[in-house]
Amino acid sequence: MRDAVCNSRCKFNDHVFRLGLLGGLILVSLLVLTACPSSTPTESRQIMRIALETAPQRLDPRYAVDVASQRVIQLVYNGLVRLDAQAQIVPDVAQSWEMPDPTTYVFHLRQDVTWHNGERLTAADVHYTFTSLLDERTESPKRASFDKIQSIEVIDEHTIRFVLSEPFAPFLTNMTQGLIPQPRAGEAARDLDAHPMGTGPFKFDRIEPDVAVHLLAYDAYFEGRAILDGVVLRILPDAMVRLFELQKGNIDLIQNALPPDLLTQLRSDKQFAVIQAPGTNFTYLGINCQDEILKHVEVRQALAHAIDRQAVIRHVLSGLGTLADGILPAGHWAYEANVPHYAYDPERAAQLLDQAGFPDPDGDGPQPRFQLTYKTSENEEGRRIAEVLQEQLRQVSIVVTIRSFEWGTFFGDIRAGNFQLYALTWVGVTEPDIFHYVLHSQSVPPAGANRGHYFNAQLDALLDAGRRSTSPETRRASYSQAQVLIATELPYVPLWHRTNVAVLRSTFRGYELTPSGDFRVIRTVRPYTSAKAS
Amino acid sequence: MHRRRLAPSGYLGCVLLACLCVSACFAPWLTPYDPRAQDLAAGLHAPAWAHPCGQDKLGRDLCARLFYGARISLLVGVMSVAVTLTLGVAIGALAGYQSGILDEFLMRLTDMFLAFPGILLALALMAILGPSLTNVVIALCIVGWVGYARLTRGLVLVAREMEYVTAARATGATAPYILIRHILPNIAGPLVVQATFSLAGMIVAEAGLSFLGLGVQPPTPSWGSMLNEGRLFLLLAPHLAMIPGVAIMLAVLGCNLLGDGLRDWLDPRGEIVA
Amino acid sequence: MQTVVLRRLVFILPVVWGVSTFVFLIIHLIPGDPIDLMLGETAAQVDRQTLRRQLGLDQPLWRQYATFLQRLVHGDLGQSLHSDRPVHTLIAERLPATATLALAALCVSVGLAIPLGVLAALRPRSWLDTGSMIVALLGVSMPNFWLGPLLILVFSLQFGWLPVAGRGDGSLPYLILPAVTLGTGMMAVLTRMTRATMMETLREDYIRTAVAKGLTMWVVVVKHALRNALIPLVTLIGLQVGALLAGAVITETIFAWPGLGELTVRAIQQRDYPVVQGCVLVIALTYVIMNMMTDLLYAVVDPRIRFEA
Lengths: 534, 274, 309
Prior knowledge:
The complex is a heterotrimer of chains A (534), B (274) and C (309). Chain A contains 15 helices and 21 strands. Chain A has helices spanning 2-5, 8-34, 67-76, 123-134, 171-174, 239-248, 261-267, 297-306, 309-316, 346-356, 380-394, 407-416, 434-439, 457-468, 472-489, and strands at residues 47-52, 81-83, 89-91, 94-98, 104-109, 149-156, 159-164, 202-208, 212-217, 230-235, 253-255, 272-277, 282-287, 321-323, 370-377, 398-405, 421-426, 492-498, 500-505, 508-509, 526-527. Chain A has a 6-stranded mixed sheet. Chain B is mainly α and 274 residues long. Helix content of chain B is 72%, strand content 0%. Chain B has helices at residues 8-25, 27-30, 62-98, 100-115, 118-129, 133-160, 163-170, 175-211, 223-232, 239-266. Chain C has 309 residues and is mainly alpha-helical. Chain C has helices at residues 2-29, 34-39, 45-55, 61-73, 87-122, 127-141, 144-158, 172-202, 205-212, 217-254, 260-270, 273-301, 303-306. Chain C is globular. Chains A and C meet through helix 2, helix 6 and helix 12 of A and helix 2, helix 3, helix 5, helix 7 and helix 9 of C.
């Protein structure tokens, strides 16, 4: 019947159709086959799943500079010392140390520290770590932090001596650097990015590139085995996906990676515990101190008075921040409370602007005193803050134009000094030497981060003194004066310190949120089942 | 040509597009609020009498931002379509009429552009050019001209063999004259249809660029950036994402329906493959 | 026929070269230093110079281009600036994920387009027609980055039927939401084409003969009309591959799907030149090959084109 009505073209199409159908069936079955679920092993182990915003770039502590990498390093490696919750230096692998003279440090290592392959850690490993860091051929980006080291000497199996070229107070803080094993005789140097091996509470199991990092508890950890059996760090770049996975039950811990507004909802949810703690992150308004308008101190002070930081914290950050006076948070040992403060005072701002020679041309009319460009990245929250600040500055007749760039371009512009205003955050402020990095005349990029090109010889002298002396009291004095000077001069406007927030599933307890968000605390996290659980 | 009625779906498309135009043109009269006026304490408030669409995170009225956002969508859409149309038709007509080496070269050029993933090209271009409305249009144009080039070439190839062209050539008319005076008017139909479809595409593309943070600058409202903002608050304040999302959907639907209707009207047998 | 094939094959090379050169230029034009983005600000000038030298970034642009071409000819796509892994390894890791997603999206798209197109063609210009087209258009009217989270909200959180994101163990449930998000975008074009060709085929004499001879409409539609509609559909699918790969970029980001698109976007943001160059090349090559196959199929099927000079 069909042949009678079909012409030759129809026949041809017929064949193609059959072929196509066959092909389609093959493709679909391939699809289903490849999508076959692999057998899931019965998980009787207690694994905690943590969400990371970005993928760790490097797992070798000599190269790890991004936050995600550092989090993994904190779990897998130890340093000679570490920082406690108050940012004080406490022993880690080194159980004690002394300074026979201002440029010499002698560390005494613990005897019970072992690498993940079971071998003991000795001073030779420490020697290897730092010599390879200083070796130009290793091309480690951290090399500059250690260039004051003149010599490293192994005294015996558990003692090592460092001699510096000059007194350098931040040296001890830098000794939190993760230690790596020395290659044994006859072995090539390990590829620590692919097979990280340290002394930390968790050892490397496997990595799915850009998807997840799997770690298992190391039984012979010198401070005691972690209670958990393992940790999975899942890389979830999208904030909503992190939230969804948390709610779905696939993630147990998210630290600092959720939009603040969502936390209100999570707080009332019994499945989760929302933990807050003051943070050491410092958000600031960067100013180009060489700019024609912004080089006047009164203008910078006016900016500080014109913005209502409390309003931003309360409404945009959902209260998760504290007003900042300067880089160092209150509670830091070098913090100076007696500095000029800048309360929200638009009238005072207007006065200062008039004084500086920028009067309002038409009183309350639309004409501005001057115009400023505010650069920001494409980050949602950054843009929102920019919009609020723009509106606040408009109230004192300063017109702000917001230009939001893709991150790479934005960062390039900032480093090149190609900006008037921007806002960024310093993460993990612990050592007051950061002032040197940020405000010293010699710290203009690329040597440092003095992006605003602020030059003040008096400040330089104070900061140099601060890093040279090794007694905490003299350091404190130098930095006190420095902070007063900075708060008067305002090379940047301090905004706030973000509160650290961690959301933890209630089936886990014992997570102490530190100001730096250090993941080392995961060692003491334990699973918890309520009495009612079946 | 036998005059047919526009299908009901076409009329629906017209109505939707008309709403878009009205919102864009008469925005200041449709809403008493300034789209930039912030009210921090009233962030994320749900729709209420005073604010029929609710308020965004900074307390700005969503309806106002919606209407002013329509301007951006329409502006970007119309300008992008206009430029890509001109550029694409010019190149395609040239390729289709001249044939030979020029044709091959231009077609390989379009192949090259097509092979490059559009969104990546737009991303790269925005990163190079920097953020601004003009640059959004430029980026979209560089990505979008290819469709028209191909279409025009196909149409011109067919039209070239038509009797009226041979007749014109016989009377000694030059190629540009023939193209502009004779061929273009006859192929205008499918081009217009394609234009309505690509208007829809441009509106979504602008939203996509804003999603990646590369669209218009804050605080200018654009549907895409509103959608991007609203995404984070999907669970807290769904109206933030729903409303611009629905707006985009209706605008795009309108363009497509109109395009389909026009196509059915001009070419009911589907002879001209677009 | 042979000449057509040969000509197309020959022209693949210049197109590939053109795309490679184009992407090389573009990516190097974007402001922002990859070294800066890799290291942040923790390295002094000295270290940056060494790193720059090691990565070949201190060479003048034309020499970098020459090296790039030289490597390309030997099939070497270089190393990632960030992770130091060979680009072809990165691509090989991610290509299956994108391919699976694209294929699944295609299945969704075709699976929805054909019934909708057939329905629309059966009663042209009726409310059934309009209704089907509106449903088909809904997919393209909802941007991926809106539809995705919406689907997650409804099907993953509200009903709990499907996983939220990621590829998981590669099983089917993880594939569904991303495939639907990506596939609905293509639905409109395919439905339109199905509708148009179905309408054309249904008008043919032999169909009317079949109906007159008493075959039911259903048999007529499936056994005869649909077959003829499939050829143009397949060629259209070939042309849509580019759009599919482009749409995959956003979908992969939303669903944390470890595919090629997401890798490329991240590489652009990090200015990881070799990775961007490699990925774009692979995507472009895929497109060109698919295009060529589509053209060939078209030529085989349509006798008019076959004999074109």
